[in-house]
Amino acid sequence: MSDTIDLGGAPANEDCAQLGHTPDFERLNRLEVGAYRAAIIARFGPPPEGCALITLTNRHDFGTYRTLGLTVDADAARLDPAVAAYSEAVQDGLGSWLEACFAPPVRYEDGGTPRVDRESIDEIVTGAILATRPGADGRFAIAAFESLHRNLAAAYPRSAEAAQRLLEEFPA
Question: How are the residues of the chain apportioned to helix, strand and coil, as percentages rounded to the nearest 5?
Fold first, then answer.
């Protein structure tokens, strides 16, 4: 048996697409949930065996919206301290995109008009990998950047390769 924790569609204190109100809702909602998944992985690492980050489909009178969920195998949580620790760490989600060194995937201008700077999860993650990279001396500007950078590079190798190519093309 497994339990599912609904983490929401974006960090708790951030604006996000609103069903029935935001233009191009479905695309923006999917982008935000995908970015939120990557931000959770950046902050807490990938889920251990016995946990999974999933997209939850929620049906409402106005249509369907998606949120990020964490499924936790009850037996694994009881038997494996890593599963219990991960679910406890992740269960409250994030308060802001900055906790994972992410720029918001969608910015809502005055009046709620959405603006998307990066169209894919790979581009969003590449930006976070670049923002958290070590300096020329191999040291990280902020200690937390090391785990954020390591978690993202391991979970999103294409984005890590893209970040490396950009650094080689445009050295500091």
Answer: 45, 20, 35
* Structural contact between residues 150 and 140, judged by C-beta atoms closer than 8 angstroms: no
Contact 61, 20 (CB under 8 A): no
End-to-end CA distance of the chain: 51
Question: Does residue 6 contact residue 67 with C-beta atoms inside 8 Å?
Answer: yes
pLDDT digits (tens, 9 = 90+) for 48-98: 999 999 999 999 888 899 999 999 998 877 888 999 999 999 999 999 999
Nearest to 11, CA basis, from 99, 89, 96, 91:
96
CA 60, CA 49: separation in Å to the nearest integer?
Answer: 32
